[in-house]
Amino acid sequence: MEKTHAKIANPRQGTTIVRVAVPIPLETLFDYSVPPHSDIPPIGGRVTVPFSGRILVGICVERSPKDPHEKPKDIIESLDIRPILSKELLDLAKWMSNYYFYPLGEVLATILPAQARKGQKLEIKREEVWRIKTGYAASDRAPRQKELLKFLETKGGQATLKEIKAEGFSSSIVKALSEKQLIYIKLPEETYVKALRIRQEAKVPVMNEEQVAVLKNINQNPDGFVATLIEGVTGSGKTEIYLRMIEAVCLKGKQALVLVPEIALTPQTLSRFKKRFGPSGVVTSLHSDLSDSERLQTWLKSENGEVQIVIGTRSAILTPFKDLGLIVVDEEHDSSFKQNEGLRYSARDVAAKRAQDLGIPILFGSATPALETLNNAEKGLYDHLHLKKRVAGAKLPRVKVIDIRGLTLKAGLSNEMLKALELHLNTGNQALIFLNRRGFAPTYLCSSCGWIKTCRKCDSKMTLHRKPDVLVCHHCGCKEPVRSICERCNGQQLKSLGLGTQRTEEALSEIFPEVPLIRIDRDNVKSHLQMQKQLDRINEGTPAILVGTQMLAKGHHFPNVTLVGIVDADSGFLSSDFRAPERTAQLITQVAGRAGRAERSGDVCIQTYQPDNLSLRSLIKNGYGGFARKELGIRKKSRLPPYQAMALIRAESEKGIEASTFLSELTNTINGDLEVLGPVEAPIARIDNRYRYQLLLLATTRAKLHDHVSRIKLDISRISNGNISMRKMKIGRTLKWSIDIDPYDTF
Predict the structure, then answer these.
(1) Does the pLDDT at position 267 exceed 80?
(2) Nearest alpha-carbon partner for 69 in 22, 117, 112
(3) Interhelix angle for 171-179 vs 143-154, to 10°?
(4) What is the per-residue pLDDT across 525-565, written as a single tens digit (0 to 9) for each?
(5) Strands 16-21 and 443-446: what pairing?
(6) Same domain membership, residue 375 and residue 270
(7) 222 preceded by cis ω (within 30°)?
(8) Phi, psi of 523 (to 5 degrees)
(9) Phi and psi of 7, rounded to 5°?
(10) pTM assigned to the model
(11) Which residues of 60-88 are buried (b: 16+ CB within 10 A; e: fewer)?
(12) Nearest CA to 596 among 405, 450, 393, 369?
């Protein structure tokens, strides 16, 4: 994929040439010369270079190339004396560039933290941590010295200087104890966990027979790369398996990476891991809520081996490690592992590639595995282990389907659902009402003429929100005030139709005025700290109604929730998107799994207008496993992923004709054994005043698909340069296009 400029036979005599990947949307790598008496950058190190009137920070990917470019410019500065990207990460970046058809310079820029991309100095900022020396005696010390030693004991034997001073201890007391060799500054390598510490300070649960069998199976695997799918019902104790595996890896001095799908899960998972593995510094997190400085420090400490366990969301898969020994992908089915703009990578798939390259094991865990993962297990590429029972004897919830055809509903809730709510609340429990639609109402219309409020920038309806009252487009973010007069007929018969979490919350607060309501959606939970605050309220355990979107469905443990009510089970099963039934079944199964996870039994009520829907019936009768087998059969007959490889080429422009013409011209160049669907308008044709078209490509093998897409990329260059109608289009400005390999969202 990498292009080069014209070759030169005799580059400047005695000058070192380096090949640099710069963060621009071109696949070309650029050669630069290193001025005399300047540091020669290491491969994997950063350099500042002049580029088209700008100064950019790039990565040196090769030194003294055999085919240097003509008349290379001088680099400005070599920023690093050692590689900041290892050969392993550079190789992974090259693979991602080739697999996802994305420029290497921009892949590398995606890997680097923001401050590293800006050329800032990379150094670990260490907090001074003081630790008690083993076997110390405090009996004959001065009172304040004894108090400091006691304080350190309460902190697990160590504390930062900042914490020590915050307790009122002066530097002189610290110095006195240090001179007497009773305390000392902890070194970074001392963060490694010791088995005795784990066993003495953490309450390790006793595993049931299924967990023991699964762990035994995993441990019987030979050293090296082995991919294992742990399919376990909700509450079956998958995390305990992860913890045992991670413990074994850490005791060998290696590191572990745990990927979770949402920021919302990070604090909960981080807390559980810290309780198990002890001191801060051993376990850390990486997610988008961290500041640029925090992300850089975690990145550097992981690369230096100063943290053992990194828990993070999608981008954490690109973290450098000194000695990575295990990767865990929890809730591996989740769509948030797929990046849907820019470098459109799947963190789950990149994790598998990285584990394979490193020769280390990888665990995929889910109660509702992705069909691609199940297919890999069926083909024998992954080990497939099962946890069919909940831990501590907890029972799976009872499921009841409520046929709401012809019924009068109150804010979308049937009398049967409301009675179930009342019953569970009266017995001192909590209930969760699930509706995967935020806002107050998805439609705002005039009952006189039928006018519907749509977004002026998108081909979509605007959603009514309350407190404050505003109409919001959930695609472009456009906001407009709520007006009381119809824009078409000037009538005043405006009303809101449909349900959102705000409307459900309002109705339930009127029906159950004495019961606390806790709503969790993207409107009122925008950070992991806000999420933690809401989770703390839930975990108080008092009777409450939880109302929320899929943010509540993913991996949370709510021991006091005994009822889950699913308000609308139909929309996903009726979607034209071929992945919609799979996503809907996963979501229903996951949210239903929040009920009855402790000693209290649970119930699940599912409201539907189509109780005879084949997908819903299959899910209820046969569980997710039975549904997945049926859905895989449908995919196979339809020649859809995972049985064919798929790519989606998208084009968008301010004038729809440009995007349509671009893809049509491209289609005319495609020959061979490739199934081509389109070009067609995207299901939502206009977003933010840009018209969207797409071209779907299917091939029997991934190799064939990549071969075709490689040729298509060459055709794009030829068409844009040689076709008269195409030359008028300013590709990259008015017309933008992208390639999405293994698309998760075809909308």
Answers:
(1) no
(2) 22
(3) 90
(4) 877 778 878 888 888 888 999 998 888 777 677 888 999 99
(5) unpaired
(6) yes
(7) no
(8) -80, -35
(9) -80, 155
(10) 0.87
(11) bbeeebeebbeebeebbebbbeebbbeee
(12) 393
Residues in Cβ contact with 492 at an 8 Å cutoff, skipping those fewer than 6 apart = 484, 485, 486
Q: In what order do the strands lie in the sheet with 158-160?
A: 158-160, 129-132, 183-185
Q: Nearest-CA neighbor of 32 among 84, 77, 89? A: 77
Which strand (E) or helix (H) includes residue 184? strand 183-185
Mean pLDDT over 314-331 rounds to 96
- Residues 1 and 712: their CA atoms lie apart, in Å, by 12
Q: Find the mean pLDDT for residues 190-201.
A: 44
Task: Let me know: does 409 contact 255? Beta carbons within 8 Å.
Answer: no
Other beta carbons within 10 Å of 567: 24
Q: CATH number, domain at 26?
A: 3.40.1440.60
The residue behind tokens 């304080």 is 151
110 and 133 in a single domain? The answer is no
Distance, C-alpha 376 to centroid of its chain: 21
What CATH number does the domain containing 616 carry?
Answer: 3.40.50.300
Indicate if the pLDDT at residue 736 is higher than 80. yes
Select the more confidently predicted residue: 127 or 506: 506
Q: Does position 199 have pLDDT exceeding 80, yes or no?
A: no
**Band (79; pLDDT cuts 50, 70, 90):** very high
Pairing outcome for strands 398-403 and 603-608: parallel
Residue 461, domain member (yes or no): no
CA distances from 697 to 318, 410, 676, 719, 737 (A): 28, 45, 5, 19, 15
Write the pLDDT tens digit of every residue in 478-492.
Answer: 999 998 899 999 999
Identify the domain containing residue 279 by its residue range: 202-392
| C-alpha distance from residue 400 to each of 63, 312, 403, 409 (Å) | 66, 36, 10, 17
Here the tokens at position 152 are 């350190």
pLDDT of the residue at 575: 82
Q: Average pLDDT over the chain, rounded to whole? A: 87
Whole-number Å distance between alpha carbons of 496 and 383: 50
Alpha-carbon gap, residue 446 to 623, rounded angstroms: 43
Single out the residue in 61, 87, 117 at which a domain terminates.
117
In the predicted structure, residue 190 carries a pLDDT above the cut 80: no
Task: Tell me whether residue 110 is in a domain.
Answer: yes
Please name which of 351, 265, 357, 375 lies closest in space to residue 311, comparing C-alpha atoms. Answer: 265
pLDDT digits (tens, 9 = 90+) for 552-606: 777 677 888 999 999 988 888 888 889 999 999 999 998 888 887 767 788 999 9
Please give the single-letter amino acid code of residue 63.
Answer: R
- Residue 543 and residue 669 share a domain: no
SS3 content of the chain, % helix, strand, coil (to 5): 35, 25, 40
Residue 14's pLDDT is 60
Structure tokens at 574: 């009726």
- Whether residues 528 and 586 share a domain: the answer is yes
Q: What is the pLDDT of residue 9?
A: 35
Report the 3 state secondary structure along 100-129: HCCCHHHHHHHHCCHHHHCCCCCCCCCCCE
**CA proximity to 72, closest of 108, 105, 107, 35:** 35
